[in-house]
Amino acid sequence: MGSTGSGSFTDYSKRKPNKPEDGGGGASGTDKCGTGFSANLEEVSRCFYFISNGIVPISGEDVKVTFNGSRLVVETILGEEIGYLPTKYNYLKLCLDDGYNYNGVITSSKNKPTPSVFVDMIPI
Fold first, then answer.
1. In a 10 Å sphere around its CB, with 0-12 CB exposed, 13-18 middle and 19+ buried, how is residue 37 labelled?
2. Cβ atoms within 10 A of the Cβ of 14, count?
3. Domain containing 82 — which CATH number?
């Protein structure tokens, strides 16, 4: 049951995650930076987009992943923060630092009972 780490970026090594040549530490041989993902965003109601508009963005809107200095955030193409990525995606910070960018689309969103946004992202 035990887990370690604080969930912060300091828990991660400076190496790109799961490069095949790493060869140790249980690496799967899959380059996680080059893999797309889907995520349910966190704290949507506390982010700029919802605060400014009172609603979540609609499905089909283009989005991107950025680092705002403290968390990985999904933004509109205009730079409006929509929600935060769960901490299990913290490895993406190293990928962003290595030159990867992640663009995608909102696949579902709802305002009630709790504002929520689900996104599909791909590396570019």
1. middle
2. 6
3. 3.30.70.2330
As given in the structure block, the two tokens for residue 24 are 């140790």
Both tokens assigned to 33: 């930076």
**Do the Cβ atoms of 107 and 100 come closer than 8 Å?**
no
For residue 62, give the 3-state DSSP assignment: strand
Q: Is 1 part of a structural domain of the chain? A: no
Residues 6+ positions from 3 with CB-CB distance below 8 Å = none
Q: Report how many domains make up the chain.
A: 1
> Which pTM does this prediction carry?
0.78
Classify residue 123 by its DSSP letter. Answer: E
CA distance linking residue 11 with residue 67, whole number of Å: 17
Does some domain include residue 66?
yes
With bands split at pLDDT 50, 70 and 90, how would you rate the model's confidence at 33? very high
Per-residue pLDDT tens for 37-67?
A: 999 999 999 999 999 999 999 999 999 999 9
**Residue (of 95, 112, 52) closest to 76 by Cα position:** 52
